[in-house]
Design brief:
The complex is a heterodimer of chains A (about 180) and B (about 425). By secondary structure, chain A is α+β, with helices and mostly antiparallel strands. Chain A contains 5 helices and 5 strands, in the order αβαβαβαβαβ. Helix content of chain A is about 40%, strand content about 15%. Chain B has 2 domains: about 120 residues, 3-Layer(aba) Sandwich (Rossmann fold), CATH 3.40.50; about 260 residues, TolB, C-terminal domain (Neuraminidase, 6 Propeller). A 5-stranded antiparallel β-sheet of chain B has the order 1-29-28-27-26, with no helix packed on it. In chain B, strands 3-2-4-5-6 form a 5-stranded mixed β-sheet, with helices on one face. The N terminus of chain B is likely disordered. The chains are: A alpha+beta (about 180), B mainly beta (about 425).
């Protein structure tokens, strides 16, 4: 039933796409003139996560198996800290070993900060958090070329609140595999 | 399967674009200068009156600057239309130190002839006298130009009423980069995305905007031409690409890249390419800003343990520290006269906009905080536009460089941030 519904929706979307001029043009520039195509857009991973997981896990993908530590993707940091806490080391190690065993696998570590301070300086701070996770992964056997580190700074808070609980949730790395 | 989901998402984006918001910023004065110049703007004969009339827009511009006090001259009859008709004694009696008179006359070809005179009633002389032949859509632009002339004659500083500003709005999941006139009029969306957009920076000649967009799920620096709408991803390297800053000649951009591991400052051609690293530091270097002479880069670095502002001499590579007080001084912006900087400092948990004079090393805190950020200096150096997070929703505000005049810029129901004040029109 679920699957049927999803297929029906997919057909509608595919139909819509066939009439669209370009598959990858979600961002539209319209100063006065042309539209320039680019890929991207925000919430795709969230949508895919909820919509697809049920049908995809059938293959036994360890990255999507809720019982597998590889399905855990967030590493939280203390205030003004860039050190991976002990409780998250098994998670980082597990992803590193997965990369070591699957040399074609690639992932991105996305660093995030809480909402305090300069937007651009927070991009640099978030980058430092992402780099900390990457450094640990390479120590556990992942290759440098398998991991890209990027930062969202304070721009994409998971918790929009402005108390310490929200800040703690936002001082975070997220691990996203290529193709997810 | 994932492909179809992406398509659905794309469709949603197009639908969003069709109903793009056009909420305009309105600007209110919330604090005035210590001394103001009393001036009377006499309604121009033939300009039609009402808020859209040339003389009304001139008066609104000058009033908004906080440096003028509007004197009502409606009791004086007959209403003068040119300098020779201004009886200075009448206006002195009303308390006006300056009077602006003018006319707007339709021409046979559909254009209009707009003339104005600025009379100093104290010195009893005409300070400015100009005429403009304008098309039907040039009323606002002409009024701003007249206000610029009056402002410069009476204050000695360039007027910035003809400039434009850029800012980012967030409405639900939707981010838009908007360009508007300095008074908030005529807002136009130049980029829309469901991912954050930040750090818009005007090129020195005002025809291009550099900005950072997350639409590819990572920060990438784009340069977009404002007249064609075409753009290029000029810094899209492995890792994060952010914090663009134009060189004064518009040919180079300083950017922060992490492609070699750490957040470091690079300089590159504004069209892309020729990327070279300007420094090596073990810590964070970011938020570059060229000094007006193009010789140095101001930047934020934590090389000393806490984020502070430094200055790099590009030719020699010499670096000197600029800020010393406090544990958090970031986001440096060079004053256009080269005599100091505006920056953000944290004091007791409050983020405030401050200004520092190089010669005296004196820092003056201009705003109250608690969440003031992203300052952008008007091209005459007299006003600073910045963002704050009042009550969880971002708004823009402006403060004069002496801290006296305060403006609030608001747009209903929109989260507004990342202001950038454009250059003087060329």
């Amino acid at each position: 039933m679920h699957k049927f519904l999803f297929t029906a929706i997919a057909v509608v979307f595919l139909g819509a796409c066939s009439t669209a001029p370009q598959v990858n043009a979600p961002v539209d520039d319209k100063s006065v003139g042309a539209t320039t195509g680019t890929t991207g857009g925000a919430n795709t991973s969230g949508t895919a996560g909820s919509g697809v997981s049920g049908s995809n896990v059938a293959g036994g993908n360890p990255l999507r198996d809720p019982a597998n530590i590889l399905s855990k993707r967030s590493i939280y940091f203390d205030f003004d800290s860039f050190v991976v806490r002990d409780e998250f080391k098994p998670l980082v190690e597990a992803h590193a070993r997965y990369l070591a065993a699957n040399r074609s696998a690639h992932l991105t570590v996305q660093g995030n900060t809480d909402e305090r301070g300069s937007r651009e300086y927070n991009i640099a701070l978030g980058q430092r958090r992402a780099d900390a996770a990457k450094r640990m992964m390479t120590l556990y056997g992942a290759q440098d070329s398998q991991i890209e580190t990027v930062s969202f700074g304070k721009e994409k808070p998971r918790n929009p609140g402005n108390d310490e609980a929200a800040y703690a949730e936002n001082r975070r790395d997220d691990i996203v595999y290529a193709g997810e | 399967m994932p492909r179809s989901i992406k398509c659905g998402f794309i469709l949603a984006v197009f639908l969003f674009a069709a109903v793009s918001a056009r909420a305009q910023l309105t600007i209110d004065i919330v604090g005035g200068a210590g001394t103001t110049i009393p001036i009377s703007i006499v309604p121009f004969d033939g300009d039609g009156g009402g808020p859209a009339a040339v003389s009304s827009i001139v008066a609104a511009d000058l009033a908004r600057s906080g440096l003028f006090k509007m004197i009502d001259g409606s009791a004086i009859s007959p209403r003068p239309q040119r300098a020779t008709e201004v009886r200075v004694g009448d206006w002195r009696a009303q308390g006006a130190d300056a009077v602006v008179v003018g006319t707007m006359r339709p021409q046979p070809d559909g254009r209009a002839d707009v003339r104005f005179d600025l009379v100093d009633t104290v010195k009893q002389q005409t300070l400015a006298s100009q005429s403009y032949l304008i098309g039907v859509n040039q009323t606002r632009a002409t009024a701003h130009r007249i206000a610029d002339v009056i402002y410069e004659k009476l204050t000695g500083d360039k007027g910035v009423f003809s400039t434009r500003i850029a800012y980012v709005t967030k409405q639900g999941p939707r981010f838009q980069l908007v360009v508007a006139d300095a008074d908030g009029a005529d807002p136009q969306t130049v980029v829309s995305s469901n991912e954050p957009i930040l750090s818009p920076k005007w090129s020195p000649e005002g025809t291009r905007l550099a900005y950072v967009s997350f639409e590819q799920k990572k920060p990438i620096v784009y340069v977009q031409n404002m007249s064609t709408g075409k753009r290029a991803a000029i810094a899209n390297f492995r890792g994060s690409n952010s914090s663009p800053a134009w060189s004064p000649d518009g040919r180079q951009l300083a950017v922060t890249l992490t492609r070699d591991g750490n957040s470091q400052i690079f300089v590159m051609n504004a069209e892309g390419g020729n990327v070279r690293r300007v420094m090596n530091s073990p810590g964070i270097d970011t938020e570059a800003c060229y000094t007006p002479d193009g010789q140095s880069l101001l930047f934020t670095s934590d090389r000393g343990g806490s984020p502070q502002i430094y200055r790099l001499n590009i030719a020699s590579g010499a670096v000197e520290r600029v800020t010393f007080d406090g544990s958090y001084n970031v986001s440096p912006r060079a004053l256009p006269d080269g005599k100091g900087i505006v920056f953000v400092r944290r004091d007791g948990g409050r983020f405030q906009i401050a200004i520092m004079d190089y010669a005296t090393r004196q820092t003056q805190v201009l705003t109250q905080g608690p969440d003031d950020e992203s300052p952008s200096i008007a091209p005459n150096g007299k006003m600073i536009l910045y963002a704050n997070e009042g009550g969880g929703r971002g708004t823009l505000a402006a403060v004069s460089s002496d801290g006296r005049v305060k403006q609030r810029l608001s747009a209903s129901a929109l989260d507004v941030r990342e202001p950038a004040w454009g250059p003087l029109p060329q």
